[in-house]
Amino acid sequence: MTGEPLALYVHWPFCVSKCPYCDFNSHVRASIDEDRWRNALLTDLAHEARLLSGRTLTSIFFGGGTPSLMAPTTVEAIIDAAAASWVPATDIEITLEANPNSVETARFADLRHAGVNRLSLGLQSFNDEALRFLGRAHSAREGFRALEIAQRSFRRVSFDLIYALPGDTEASWSASLGQALSLGTRHLSLYQLTIEPGTRFASMVGRREFEPLDADAAAALYELTDAMTSAAGTPGYEVSNYARPGQESRHNLTYWRYGDYSGIGPGAHGRRLGARTVRHRKPENFLSALAQNGHGIVEEEQLSSVEAADEALVMGLRLREGVDARAIAERFGLTSIIDSMRVERLVGSGHLELSGTRIALTARGRLLLDHILGEIAAAEPRVHAVAS
Ligand code: SF4
Questions:
Q1: How far apart are the C-alpha atoms of 80 and 86, rounded to whole Å?
Q2: Distance, CA 27 to ligand 1 centroid (Å)?
């Protein structure tokens, strides 16, 4: 596998406060021992490097939590260790997620010097009332300021918005999205608000403190998003991601195209050499595991070819380019990975489109993503007979 591409995900699990819609692995702590965490992440990285020597490192992604709260020297130490452990691609993409608070904005220049070359900014909204509802710790004004500084500091900047909030209409979302598209960004992540179990929003909905936007209204906003982003030359390339051609997130494409990636830090998932890895979620448990075992892994499972093919199909169908079903079947030694009759039916109903052996969701199909994925996976994919 020497020379094969590899992506690295680094999870920083801490946030200043917990947003009410968030089900990510994020934790609020009174104090964080930065030295201890730097050493822990470096040890976790060294474990992956031992198992994957000689690989070409195509991207690093610092996610969270709030990785813009990391000291830039910690970010630099991890980038340096990764570059020394693998062979960095000449065009390596190094992304860091940031919140637009002034403390974090002040670090952008240092993060760039540390080696970060792409910033993903969690703006979430341009409206102060919506930001308050989402429990965000920044104002719309701070968001604009952070974007301006980010665009001056980094060659590639993406930002996130959350829409389909209670009360959102086509008129209000079209005004916000129009504003977003006028800000010169070449990559956008546009997520619909979903109420995840276990979050504060889930309890609030349970107590009828607010009602989520209904599914038809949310679907209309999704279609509007599609039309406006395409017209602006920033079309969707994944269910919630939009980019000018060539500006797609290379790191996330590795996930969706089912490439190998190491995931280090609390709760990080990874996929290497046919195995799925999961790290301890709780920061304190992660540190104990690391002290004991030299890595933070809580689960490591070798996937069967059927499981791997199924994952590759599910991940790939999130992309507009879709998947080559035959190529996936061949990659995992299977005769087929889809139920052809069901695929034909979904093509007929306008949810899927077929081009040769490639399958992709249509705009209508993307609205029913989970349902379609369940429909087309073959009931019993067959494994090629192996000559003994
Ligand atoms: S800042 Fe991001 S990771 Fe942290 S609680 Fe809010 S949504 Fe979750």
A1: 10
A2: 9
Give, for ligand 1, the residue of 16, 21, 26 to mutate: max count of ligand atoms closer than 8 Å to Cβ. 26
Say if residue 383's pLDDT is above 70.
no
Question: Is the CB of 98 within 6 Å of ligand 1?
Answer: no
Buried/exposed 241-253: b ≥16 CB within 10 Å, e otherwise: bbbeeebbbbbbb
- Closest-CA residue to 5 (of 47, 80, 77, 60): 60
Structure pTM?
A: 0.94
283 Cα–ligand 1 center, Å: 15
Looking at ligand 1, which atom is closest to the CA of residue 65?
A: 3
Instruction: Return the residue whose CA atom lies nearest to atom 3 of ligand 1.
Output: 65
pLDDT at residue 141 tops 80: yes
Query: What SS3 state is found at 236?
Result: strand
All residues at 6 or more sequence positions from 70 whose CB lies less than 8 Å from its CB, including other chains: 12, 34, 62
Cβ of 25 closer than 6 Å to ligand 1, yes or no, is no
Q: Is 359's pLDDT higher than 80?
A: yes
Q: Residue 387's pLDDT band (boundaries 50, 70, 90)? A: very low
Tell me the Cα Rg of the chain: 21
Number of H helices, E strands in the chain: 16, 15
Q: What is the pLDDT of residues 70-88, one digit of tens each?
A: 999 999 999 999 999 999 9
384 pLDDT tier (thresholds 50, 70, 90): very low
**Using the 8-state DSSP alphabet, how is residue 161 labeled?**
E
